[in-house]
């Protein structure tokens, strides 16, 4: 079994109020680096994204950033990443991050993180990819999201089997343990990724 080698992480560009959020981002960055898994993320130097990249780099990991030109100043483009892609729009950013990744992890974040999460879930629902999506529900942060999905199932807007498109994990340790068990995709998917 060939292991997953690249993981896209969606995370807030703000640190959040509770220290556990930034701590989780740093633990995930370190954990990916120690496993030899490349981190693909939004390319910023702020908030949880910054903590994630800092920790991965400090642990000797490979870090790939994807940032739209108009956000380079706001999110402080980094010069220390292994690889940095500058794209023209948010749409291009999400597509490029997906193209470079074999699995997705969702950390706490705001509207941008929600946008990225729902898009990659929708792409999986539409069978554009079949890569794992792991949601790190740190401190119950995503409880409301899961409640809304349950409501959508109950009201007939989402099929119950579609709740298997993602996995809910309460800690970074369980996310990392799950990544250790996953095989890399065997061939290209509908988005052209191998």
Task: Please name the defining characteristics of this protein.
7 strands, 194 residues, globular, alpha/beta, 6 helices, seven-stranded parallel beta sheet, Rossmann fold
How would you sum up this structure in a few lines?
The chain is α/β, with parallel strands linked by helices. It contains 6 helices and 7 strands.
Please characterize this protein's 3D structure:
The chain is α/β, with parallel strands linked by helices and 194 residues long. The protein has one domain (6-181): Rossmann fold. Helix content is 39%, strand content 16%. It contains 6 helices and 7 strands; from the N terminus they run βαβαββαβαβαβα. It has helices at 19-34, 47-58, 90-99, 111-125, 143-154, 172-181, and strands at 6-10, 38-41, 63-68, 83-87, 103-106, 133-136, 167-169. The protein has a 7-stranded parallel beta sheet, with helices on both faces. Strand 1, helix 1 and strand 2 (38-41) form a beta-alpha-beta unit. Helix 1 (19-34) packs parallel to helix 2 (47-58) and helix 1 (19-34) packs parallel to helix 6. The chain is globular. The chain starts with 5 loop residues before the first strand and ends in a 13-residue tail after the last helix. The model has no long low-confidence stretch (mean pLDDT 93).
């Amino acid at each position: 079994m060939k292991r997953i080698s690249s993981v896209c992480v969606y995370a807030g560009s703000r640190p959040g109020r509770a220290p556990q959020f930034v701590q989780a981002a740093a633990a995930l960055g370190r954990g990916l680096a120690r496993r030899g898994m490349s981190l693909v993320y939004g390319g910023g130097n702020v908030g949880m994204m910054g903590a994630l990249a800092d920790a991965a780099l400090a642990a000797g990991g490979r870090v790939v950033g994807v940032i739209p030109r108009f956000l380079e100043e706001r999110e402080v483009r980094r010069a220390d990443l292994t690889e940095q892609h500058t794209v023209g729009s948010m749409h291009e950013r999400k597509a490029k991050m997906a193209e470079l990744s074999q699995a997705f992890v969702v950390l706490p974040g705001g509207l941008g993180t929600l946008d990225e999460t729902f898009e990659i879930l929708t792409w999986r629902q539409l069978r554009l990819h079949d890569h794992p999506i792991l949601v790190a529900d740190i401190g119950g942060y995503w409880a409301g999201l899961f409640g809304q999905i349950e409501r959508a199932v109950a009201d007939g807007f989402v099929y119950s089997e579609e709740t298997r498109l993602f996995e809910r994990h309460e800690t970074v340790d369980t996310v990392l343990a799950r990544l250790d068990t996953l095989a890399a995709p065997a061939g290209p998917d509908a988005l052209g990724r191998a």
